Amino acid sequence: MVNWIKRYWVELLTFGAISGVLFLLATPDITWINTDSDGVHYIYAAEYLYPAHKSSAPLYLLLSNIFLRLPFGTEAWRMALISVLSGIVGGWLIYLTIRHLTKENKLNRLFGIAGALVYGSSALAISQNTIVETYPLVTTVSLGIYYFALKGKWKLSALMIGIAGAIHPLSLLVSIPLLIVYKELRQWKQLAIAGIFVLFYLYIPLTNRSPYMWNAPNEKGLGGFLVDTFATAQMLSGGLSIWDFPKRVIDTILQLGLSWNIGIVILVMYFWKVKWYKELLCWLIILPIVYYATNLAPQTYVYMQPSIAFGAIAIGIGLSKIRFKYTGGLFPNEWTKLATYGVIGVSSIMLVVNANYFDIGRTLDKNLSARQFYNNELSKVPDGQILLAQQGWEWAMVYPYNKNEGRNIIPINPGSLASPKYQDILHSWGIKFDVPKERVTLVELQDYIVKEILKQNENIWITVPVESRTYGAEIVSYKGNEDKLEFTPKSITDGSMDMVWKWKPYNPYDITTGAIEIDEWIYIVFSNYTVLAFTMMGMIGVVPMWIGYMLVVKRKRWSFRKAVSARI
User: Fold this and answer.
1) Residue 563: its pLDDT value, please?
2) ∠ at Cα 323 (318, 324), nearest 5°?
3) According to the model, what pLDDT value does residue 560 have?
4) Hey, is 466 helix, strand or coil?
5) Contact between 271 and 314 (Cβ < 8 Å)
């Protein structure tokens, strides 16, 4: 035992530091910080076994139900333990993967430690690995898919694909490239192992009951899940206004630089030397980044957590490839050691810096605004009266409050009012409103119904932001506070309001904590001029030109039969 400790003392120190930071930073109570708008209703859905969101994260909720039964800590802290443990195991998988891929190099232990520290000290990873969220768990399981595939353990890799898919659809950005590259994962046994986990989505129809928070009564079965998931992905991906795209690219680079720190230089050098487009690891990094960079909602920067993890692996591999041509190839190990120690040193510093910054209840969200809202604000609303929440997280808080406290506040989420199914639910609760007979845009429909609700119903309360950087809010009566209702986003249908190129980036820490969400992001601009629209127009132009070039200039003759036989 003593000899083992002496041999692996560096690993013990590294993972001891990462583990200690995550356990110390685990959220002490419910919070909305780090864009954790999901946390409160994840706890509610896990504790009482209801669906959460449209896709519901069934395996995550079932696992959370077990953690909620622990006899110590707050409910939020108990569920956050899943994220904490995921962060630790994720770092360990990064270490093992790097060691496996650099086993020919005597310094592979150092490379593994460097990669684990890059991920463990990452601002994005720490912010998510300490709260109630699905992304840490799905990231760790995705790392497991990759590691077991590298080891040739196809059944275990397929098992991880199934588990990841039952946690969050984000895993598809990892699973699909792996399925394309490794034909062994496409064999029927592996596909059957992964496919069986689709049954976890039976959780939605089995638990879908009143009161309906996310899923209306007729949204049942796997078909409803698939339709909702596809519709949500379609709405978000590529929906960013083209005028906001330069700014989003800069924001993305700053986010990656903050999380990879000095390692981003190693990563770029590594992929610069190889044909990056042929590297599976590169696509595992790129796809979540592209999804976020073109995504309508800027809060989805958290989708890049798998990119940070796989990027840490690439940094570890890149360290093993370092060569400086101007030294004539002399002293390769010394240069490699110097770069590796540099990454380890900077990552260690960032671990301390980010540990201090993301300390919820001390440096972040000192007043725990979510708990304050639950304890002090919701009690203002009498039973049977309406709470028109300006933000979704405030609306979601009503459901656990009603359940836990035996109350009957009627919550209304303006963002869901365009759904006919949600309108039926509100009517069944006795809420009066009409819908426009003429065809209107989504945002105009929501605006119209809200005005109808305010006009036709009495005893309405609204939420008002009072501490925007921590999502803090108070509840006031709508009567006498009409000027404080400002939930309607800008509806852009002709492009006249957003045709200005935006370049000035946000502070990356403000993005990570969500501190600017209410002030900057709450009015999401819907535009006809989106990244997706311009991409499609570009493809319409480029594809025919490429075909013409191949036929006329290159004089290539292409046939469908030859293409198919070549693939087989």
Assistant:
1) 40
2) 130
3) 41
4) strand
5) yes
Instruction: Inform me whether the pLDDT recorded for 227 exceeds 80.
Output: no
d(CA 130, CA 305): 13
Residue 465's DSSP bridge partners are: 473
Contacts of 69 (CB under 8 A, 6+ apart): none
pLDDT tens figures, 198-212: 999 889 888 988 888
What's the token pair of residue 358?
């993301």
Alpha carbon separation from 385 to 200, 458, 462, 477, 512 (Å, rounded)? 37, 8, 11, 11, 36
Of 53-67, 224-238, 306-320, which range is least confident?
Answer: 224-238
Contact by Cβ (8 Å): 239, 489:
no
Is the CB of residue 308 less than 8 Å from the CB of residue 122? yes
For 412, the token pair is 């209304």
Separation between Cα atoms, residue 415 and residue 219, nearest integer Å: 18
pLDDT digits (tens, 9 = 90+) for 167-190: 998 899 999 999 999 999 999 999
Task: Count Cα neighbours of 57 within 13 Å in the Cβ-side half-sphere.
Answer: 25
CA 437 to chain centre: 38
Token pair of 183, please? 């034909």
Q: Where are the beta strands (DSSP E) in 111-162?
A: none
What does 262-312 look like in DSSP terms, one character per residue?
THHHHHHHHHHHTTGGG-HHHHHHHHHHHHHHT-S-GGGGGGGHHHHHHHH
SS (H, E, C) 516-558: CHHHHHCCCCECCCEHHHHHHHHHHHHHHHHHHHHHHHCCCCC
Residue 8 pLDDT exceeds 50: yes
pLDDT tens digits for range 356-407: 999 999 999 999 999 999 999 999 999 999 999 988 899 999 999 999 999 9
Terminal-residue alpha carbon distance, the chain:
53
Do the Cβ atoms of 425 and 413 come closer than 8 Å? no
Phi/psi for 452 (5° steps) reads -65, -40
**How confident is the model over 460-510, as pLDDT tens digits?**
999 999 988 899 999 999 998 888 887 555 544 444 455 788 889 999 999
Residue 475, strand partner residues:
463
